[in-house]
Amino acid sequence: MKTELKQLAQLVRANFITRSTCLAKDSSEMNVRETADYIRVDCGLPSDTFNNSVWLKEQVKPSDTSLIEETVEYFNKKQYPMALWSWEDRSSCTFETLRSLGLNEAEINIAMYADLDALQPDTNCPAELKLKEIASARDIEQYADVLASLFGESPEAVNVRLYFNQQSAARLLNHSVMKLYIGTVQDDVVSTGCLIFAPDSVGIYDIATRQECRGRGFGSAMFNFLLAEARKHRTGWCVLQASPDGINIYKRSGFEPVCEVTVYENRHLFE
Question: pLDDT tens for residues 196-255?
């Protein structure tokens, strides 16, 4: 990977680390371990949405196996599902090293970036949809419910709700780094979005729409609303991680791909 692309990939990774740790660092229920090799976040619940490890070295070498095993075994001993995020080339030895520790490849995302100053968010929005930053404990509860709906009736859905329930509403409503947004139709929350204000970038996360409300432009409207909100507060880089199916949507808005992000999981070891 060229030097500039490496720097951009590290920018996306740094924003994700900020997103993973910004609530955990100030919570007695959660634990963050930071080393020169990895960041590990234990959210205090059996949830691989919020239990994350991020490898920090440029490449995983065979000699690093014990270091990765340290963070993997931490969650295995608790029988907590976790996700290990890697920004490295899957053709490297990273893949085989993680497989040897019992991790399965769960998903591949595309890290993307754009210059906020160059973006022109679409201001069109479905007439029935109202977009805003969360303003109450009830907003937070409904935000969590939309995200949980992505997991159906699974234990993960329960834990996603618990994760937000264990946060202080006052803290979430006034957080300087994490800003949560909702889209409502007749006072029912139907879509969500999140901005993470890291030191060197703004990250977009959690764009989700209730299944029964999809196909009505709510997700696109939320995305453009988040871009407009980001531009109000910052200049510089905006980053996100897209599924392969969604990459063209972001390309049309001015985002460029920088690298693949592979997510590995241990959930199968407990099911």
Answer: 999 999 999 999 999 999 999 999 999 999 999 999 999 999 999 998 888 988 999 999
Identify the CA nearest to 183 among candidates 228, 220, 232, 238: 220
- Biggest CA-to-CA distance, the chain: 57
Pairing verdict, β 52-55 and 201-209: unpaired
Task: List phi, psi (to 5°) of 44.
Answer: 85, 5
Output the CA–CA distances (angstroms, integers) from residue 14 to 61, 200, 257, in the order listed: 22, 9, 16
Collect all residues with Cβ–Cβ distance below 8 Å to 32 and sequence separation of at least 6: 21, 24, 25, 39, 40, 41, 42
**Is domain 116-257 classified as CATH 3.40.50.300?**
no
Indicate the fold that domain 3-111+260-269 takes in CATH.
Aminopeptidase (3.40.630)
Contact (CB, 8 A) for 183 and 131: yes
pTM of the model: 0.94
Residues 59-103: tens digit of each pLDDT? 666 677 777 888 889 999 999 999 999 887 666 666 777 788 889
**Interatomic CA distance for residues 193 and 205, integer angstroms:** 6
Range(s) for CATH 3.40.630.30 in the chain? Answer: 116-257
